[in-house]
Specification:
The protein is of the alpha/beta class and 208 residues long. 32% of the residues lie in helices and 24% in strands. The chain has an eight-stranded mixed beta sheet with strand order 5-2-1-6-7-11-12-10, sandwiched between helices. The chain has a two-stranded antiparallel sheet with strand order 3-4. Strands 8-9 form a two-stranded antiparallel ribbon.
């Protein structure tokens, strides 16, 4: 058996079916403590911790021992940022040092992105944000300069909430790791994972 290859600090936000599946795939090929799954519902958190299985959304799939379950959002974000900074200091030749995956449905994407900004502020160099939501969301007017309501794509929501810069498109092969095959097989539509990577001097977005 090959040794775990993933040492990238990874935080998955949302423990639904897909969030759990992504966390399982990443943690299964990572060293202990590098992949964390934030669980919003306190009762679900206790059940996941007790059974090491998401019996509600992904029954029959055991959570790897390497996967860290998190209940407190603020502490999960703080631990991830600390790991990302340590990774950047010890891996100066790499360009990616931390990944957050927003595994919420479209209706919860704005709240999740806003929560990240509140806890972490803008991403530091080498940090990335990916989101898995699809479709459009109807957003109501929040500022006088905005229309009364508007349909927003996922990248527009994250771009607005996280104050992202330019949009760039890269094939998945250009990223510094390979997405697990089982991760792609769980997608019911062609997998397009949008990633915002913060680089000096300006942040950028990447679509895989």
């Amino acid at each position: 058996m090959s040794s775990p290859e993933l040492t990238l600090p990874t935080l998955v936000i949302g423990a639904g079916a897909w969030g759990t599946a992504v966390a399982v795939q990443f943690a299964g090929r990572a060293q202990t403590g590098y992949v964390s799954l934030w669980v919003r519902d306190p009762q679900q958190f206790e059940l996941l911790k007790k059974h090491r299985e998401n019996r509600r959304y992904l029954p029959g799939v055991r959570l790897p021992e390497q996967l860290v379950l998190c209940r407190e959002f603020a502490s999960a974000c703080a631990s991830w940022r600390e790991q990302a900074r340590a990774h950047r200091q010890s891996n100066v030749v790499q360009s990616l040092h931390g990944l957050i995956i927003l595994a919420t449905p479209m209706a919860g994407l704005e709240e999740a992105a806003a929560g990240l900004m509140q806890q972490l502020g803008p991403p530091e160099p080498g940090e990335a944000i990916a989101w898995l939501a699809k479709g459009l969301a109807l957003q109501q007017q929040k500022e006088p300069s905005e229309p009364a309501s508007a349909l927003k794509w996922p990248h527009e929501i994250v771009q607005h909430q996280c104050h992202a810069g330019r949009m760039h498109h890269f094939p998945g092969q250009a990223l510094p790791w390979k997405w697990p095959e089982a991760f792609r097989l769980r997608c019911r539509w062609p997998a397009r994972i949008f990633v915002w990577r913060a680089r000096s001097p300006s942040p950028a977005m990447v679509a895989a």
